[in-house]
Amino acid sequence: MPLYFITGNKNKFEEAKAILSGVEQLDIDLPEMQDLDAKNIIEAKLAEALKHKKGEFMVEDTSLYMDCLNGLPGPFIKWFLKSIGNNGLAGLAERLGNNKAEAKTIIGYAGKDGDIHFFEGSIRGKIIAPQGETNFGWDPIFQPDGFDKSFAEMGKEEKNKISMRKVALEKLKDFLIKP
Amino acid sequence: MPLYFITGNKNKFEEAKAILSGVEQLDIDLPEMQDLDAKNIIEAKLAEALKHKKGEFMVEDTSLYMDCLNGLPGPFIKWFLKSIGNNGLAGLAERLGNNKAEAKTIIGYAGKDGDIHFFEGSIRGKIIAPQGETNFGWDPIFQPDGFDKSFAEMGKEEKNKISMRKVALEKLKDFLIKP
Question: Does any CB of chain B come closer than 8 Å to the CB of residue A76?
């Protein structure tokens, strides 16, 4: 029985596939609960998936947590982008006088027995005025600590090397290959 | 068959009962979808209710929409309060230099045939530093236009007279008594 990665995002799937060779993409739309805690959102999705289909599942959430907003937008990042965009987010950090932020991926994995495990990867950085291509959400406004460019200005390879998603995926991989 | 008002909030129910005499409270917990548009959240709740029980239903959403955040927090107000609180919201309006806001109630009504109708009431105002008792969410930071005190500083009667919820309830009442 394969491990299904529930996502509609082809890039995220490819990134997972590079680390977890046996994973398969399952592009179904699961309801996204309102919650500040991404783990609760992920858990609800996994529970929903388990209702419909047998197998092992993984769901991921990658969000931007801003210090000046005490962790917001977090899992609500999608809606912040829709309403105020990257310029609005960068403006907030500037006006509030604190540009520190965290980019965090949480992966939830549901095993054969319905047991659920979480794996995290995070990277600290700062919010800057948008720089680079706007290919992926808030990439243009997040500059990881130790770098002088935004995620959007990095090549795919360079970004993947430090990616919070990669860290979380590696942790899941370690868990799965444990005897 | 009665009209069920799905809410866990006794005050909201009492306010509805004063206008819609036949209404009954149904205190069930329905999942709250992530969406910027309260109508979509309400619609999903009504659909869920209709799956479980026959009858007429109403669901309401009362949210605070800030001009400086292009309408946020809107239906996410609960999570903004949890993370940055009234002080944080008031600080945002001040730092962003725009304190205009709207308090809006949307009621969704599902009729016997599963038809869904929406009724709105809204009131413009401004975001101020918290004033008055903190009985209800963001009442201390919302000052309706034409008044020199916050919702939290008003008596229940005074507030209900201008309440956005009352306007929406009256619209629903008019709809229901139409021949």
Answer: yes
Cis omega (within 30 of 0) for bond into A73: yes
Q: Mean per-residue pLDDT for B41-61? A: 92
Who contacts A110 (Cβ-Cβ below 8 Å, separation ≥6)? A46, A49, A50, A56, A57, A58, A116
Any idea how long chain A is? Answer: 179
Take residue B140 and report the two structure tokens written for it: 């201390």
Given the DSSP bridges, would you call strands A56-66 and A73-74 parallel, antiparallel or unpaired?
A: antiparallel
| Residue B51 in contact with partner chain A when CB distance is under 8 A | no
Q: Which residues is B81 bridged to in the sheet?
A: none
CB contacts < 8 A, A to B, total 64
CB spacing of B88 vs A76 below 8 angstroms: no
CA-CA distances (angstroms) from residue A116 to A23, A36, A127, B56?
Answer: 17, 19, 33, 38
CA B27 – CA B7 distance, rounded (Å): 5
Indicate if the alpha-carbon torsion angle A138, A140, A142, A145 is positive or negative: positive
CB < 8 Å to B33, chain A: 31-34
Q: Which of A123-132, B20-29, B109-118 has the highest mean pLDDT?
A: A123-132
This prediction's pTM: 0.91
At A7, list the tokens. Answer: 């996502």
Global ipTM: 0.88
CA distance A112 to A56: 6
Percentage of the residues of chain A whose pLDDT score is greater than 90: 79
Compare B7 and A178 and report the one with higher pLDDT: B7
Give contacts of A78 with chain B, Cβ < 8 Å: 34
The DSSP element (H or E) to which B99 belongs, if any, is none
Question: Residue-wise over B58-93: b if at least 16 C-beta within 10 A, else e?
Answer: bbbbbbbbbbbbebbbbbbbebbbebbbbebbbbbb
Structure tokens at A165: 């998603």
